[in-house]
Amino acid sequence: MSDAAETLLFPCTLGGSIAASRRRFKMLMLGMGILMLIVAVAVLLEGRVVAALLAFAVALVSRLAWRMSGDLTPARLEVGPGTLAVRTRSQPIEIPLEGTSARALTADELAHLEQLASAGGFVVATGGFDSHLLGEFDLYASDLGHAVLVEGMEHRLVLTPDDPTRFLEALERS
């Protein structure tokens, strides 16, 4: 049996507070981009080329910020023989499963994670955190309601597969 046949895939669909936050951020960046394009045209019509170029650059930066904001959001998790891969839009993250344990987060831990990952009405999907309740961990999330803590010798991750129960079973078998 080949490694590809043994690899189990677990989708990570955007949902909950992360999906809502992404929609708000998209609207914010879209609004800022449109506003700066209008400003660029208005100041260009007044003959202020440098100001128009600056406004146009800010419009491009808002598009770039939107594009990059989801680069590390997981699209799927792959559990293969001895490895866990977090597949994101920009790069795969490979984690050896030797000595790894995993469990679903409790309701208190989920509430704490939601507060920890939130700032100013936005919820981040990825990042490194240090928490009094969960310790130091890296977050790769699509929907915090499905959060699972994976602990290994060199890593602590919070991941959010669409089917946490099946994911935990697959990790246990690997």
Residue-averaged pLDDT: 91
Please give the radius of gyration in angstroms: 20 Å
In terms of structural class, how would the helical and strand content be classed?
alpha+beta
Spatial gap, N to C terminus: 15 Å
**Oligomeric nature of the chains:** single chain
What's the total helix number? 5
Helix content: 40-55%
Uncertain spans: none
- Number of E-state strands: 11
Order of helices and strands: HEHHEEEEHEEEEEEH
Shape label: elongated
Task: Bin the strand percentage.
Answer: 25-35%
As laid out across the biggest beta sheet, the strand order is: 5-10-11-9-8
Largest sheet report: 5 strands, mixed
Report on this model:
By secondary structure, the chain is of the alpha+beta class. Helices cover 43% and strands 29% of the residues. It has helices spanning 3-6, 16-45, 49-68, 107-116, 164-173; strands at residues 8-11, 74-80, 83-88, 92-96, 101-104, 118-119, 122-123, 126-131, 135-140, 148-151, 156-159. Strands 5-10-11-9-8 form a five-stranded mixed β-sheet, with helices on one face. α2 runs antiparallel to α3 (49-68).
